[in-house]
Amino acid sequence: MYPLLFRHVLSRLDPEFAHHAAMAVIRVLGVPPFSWVTRAIAAPGTSQRVRALGLTFPSPFGVAAGFDKNAVGVRGLDALGFGHIEVGTITAIPQDGNPRPRLFRLVPDRAVINRMGFNNRGADAAARRLQRLRRRAPRAVIGVNIGKSRVVEVDDAVADYVASASRLAPLADYLAINVSSPNTPGLRGLQAVETLAPLLRAVKDAAGATPLLVKIAPDLSDDEITAIARLAVAEGLDGIIAHNTTISRDGLRTDAAVVEAAGAGGLSGAPLKARSLEVLAVVRAAVPEDFCVIAVGGVETPQDVQERLDAGATLVQGYTAFLYRGPLWARQINRGLRGR
């Protein structure tokens, strides 16, 4: 049913408009009595629970940052069967992001190019929504992904991240530092070990007891990934999210003119599968066995999730395949994992 809807209706809509329309439906699904029905259909089985970061995750499969930038769809996404929801990326200062259009489908590749640019309503607004969520049941596992405000110079990034962490860490189940989006000028430069170390140290102090992870880019060399992984361990972080979108356009099946017309931005979806597994292997080899590694990139089927778990991922996240699989995607993953 959903493939027909996507092919004949949704794929003809502007991608960003379609996303906002889908989010409106997801928000409704998070409100009783709709949430009762949704949860009955999609909730993962008790055998799928995972202990990580001092938390119990209902399922190893969660939704990656970028889908719910402002923490408005958490209850609906939880009801749809995701084991955790990572909201954001959230910045200390509200911002509109990059000019539209900024989201593009590559349907033959089951992929997306985005240059959203951390569009969000800011840390204070997100904190107010998270406070309301924490007063309600059932309680979803919520990660909060924070990034640099665009108006803040890279040299002042540490204070900007600390401001977000101080405001949001007390309301988050875990906090993720995003230094790997390709859509904020200068941001990826913060992944250099000499600049990353003081940032991690300062945000860890601000986060207090809240588990802290760092999200890296797939375009780093394996040696750079190893260095960051070892740094994260040395600085006392709780995990690594591997990985963000890529600036590469290699191996795409979509017509080259369509790809060129989409322009700059991060590529996500099925084409990242091979690199995702490579990055996971590099990170896993560089960190202790009990260090949390969240695998992201090219995840669509239960087999994809299981492959990453078998390769050493603690948890797995997805986003892009939601566009192509529809609202019961998490249910499909959870049922497939249960069968395996």
Main sheet record:
8 strands, parallel
Give the uncertain stretches in residue-range form.
none
Mean pLDDT: 93
The end-to-end span amounts to 25 Å
Count every helix, treating DSSP H or I runs of 4 or more residues as helices. 13
**Major sheet: arrangement of strands:** 3-13-12-10-9-8-7-4
Helix-strand pattern:
HHHEEEHEEEHEHEHEHEHEHEHEHH
Overall, the morphology is globular
Global Rg: 18 Å
Strand content: 15-25%
Could you explain how this protein is built, in words?
This protein has 340 residues and is an alpha/beta fold. It is built from 13 helices and 13 strands. The protein has helices at residues 2-8, 15-29, 34-42, 74-79, 123-134, 157-168, 193-207, 222-234, 256-262, 273-286, 302-310, 321-325, 329-339, and strands spanning 50-52, 55-57, 61-63, 85-90, 103-106, 111-114, 142-146, 174-178, 212-216, 239-242, 266-269, 292-296, 315-318. The strands form three sheets. Strands 3-13-12-10-9-8-7-4 form an eight-stranded parallel sheet. Helix 6 links the parallel strand 7 (142-146) and strand 8 (174-178). Helix 5 (123-134) runs parallel beside helix 6 (157-168) and helix 7 (193-207) runs parallel beside helix 8 (222-234). The chain is globular. The mean pLDDT is 93.
Protein traits:
single chain; 340 residues; alpha/beta; eight-stranded parallel sheet; three-stranded antiparallel sheet; 13 helices; globular
